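Hello,

Following up on my earlier ticket. Below are the two sequence lines again, exactly as submitted.
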Amino acid sequence: MLSKIRLKPLILLSLVATLGACATRPPEGTPPGEVFDPYERNNRGIHKFNLGVDRFLFRPASKGYVKIFPDPVVTSFSNFAENLTMPGQALDYLLQGNLKQSGNALLRFAINTTVGGAGLSKPADELNLPPVDTDFGETLHVWGVGEGAYVELPLYGPSTQRDAIGVVVNLFSNPINFSPVRPIDNIGVYAEVVRRAGDRGRFSDTVDSILYESADSYAQSQTIYLQNRRFELARDDEDAYLGLYDDPYADIGTDPVRDPYLDPYEDPYAE
Amino acid sequence: MLNNHLNRRGFVATGLAGVLMAALPAYAQTEASAKALVVSVVDDINRVIASGKSEKSMIRDFEKIFAQYADVPIMARYVLGADGRSASPAQLRQFTDAFQGYISNKYGRRFREFIGGQVTVRNARKIKAGYEVRTSVKLQGSSPFEVTFLVSDKSGRDRFFNMFIEGVNMLLTERTEVGALLDARGGDLNRLIKDMKQNKLS
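Thanks for your patience. The regenerated structure is below:
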């Protein structure tokens, strides 16, 4: 038991070292809105594998899960999983130097675990505390690590080199895993799978439309993941936030043939 | 007495003319008008969702809302990206038309997931092309998420020209998708327009 605990930081260190060593930077001068995907061939292979897993395993299991259990039960299980991540998130906020949010995460954990019945409900939400949503990938971002290349991880899905390190570190860094009263090993990981199944089942139309109805599901999941991730990380940085806007009105106007407003009588709906 | 009456009428008439003169040529976009547009879009969409009509007629209603409140020509142009530069004006018109149906069909089918959702307009601020209006959407059983509308009056009146859901830019995402759809057709825009109109994309 003791040796197992000592082993974990070692595995962790070597993993971070290996992943960090292969982290490639986008070449200087690449616009921030662009996608850096030097491993596209490899990524597309993993994407195909992930699609297969989803089609034959995760999608049917998730749809069954939300069909069998009523909505409030699915929500409760998701709350339970989210609550288990709170001590880990508190640790990440601490590493980011954000003491306020670190305390907030711990407060939520304390309230939801006790009053909320092991975290099955979220009474802390009623206190109007700011939302808690971080991970080790964000910690690395705060420390100044760039996102690196886009990668699609087996079973997990879209990520970047930086966030992949975060995912692996967060597998081990949750203090819950080191607590003496722990019902099941890696309970956080199992709970997370159940939570993801709840989301997959609930928003199955949206996920299906991305994975199975788009012309290039790899490109769609990639752009959606990167945009959302960059948005999450830029949320507190107004300049970066506004930088996400592209002005379509700026593109046209130079070429009279292309300017839809040059001829005020043009009616695009008349046919 | 008579004089007074005429005077009053004259006063009312001049006043009305003044109001009309002020209102007609000087249409100006304001933060309030941008917010009001978003509120109208949300209200209209909610009304359709709550109507309980068949999916097909709901999608038809969504298309009307989209055509009314969105600057579809500029959106279609942006989504075509570099491929739009070599297109003829007639092709662009047809693509705009096809794009309108494609968007209404694609997103209209998913509004079911928004049943019972609550949209709150949070704030608006000036951006280059007009205004950014941020809203917060609360669905049952999930944490609130941010939906942002970009509104511009460059078409002559307030219309939204882009939408972000938790930072995911609808136009940019559709540009990627339309690029892939074109690639799958060897870059043949006419074929894409035809397939889009017949709803035969995959």
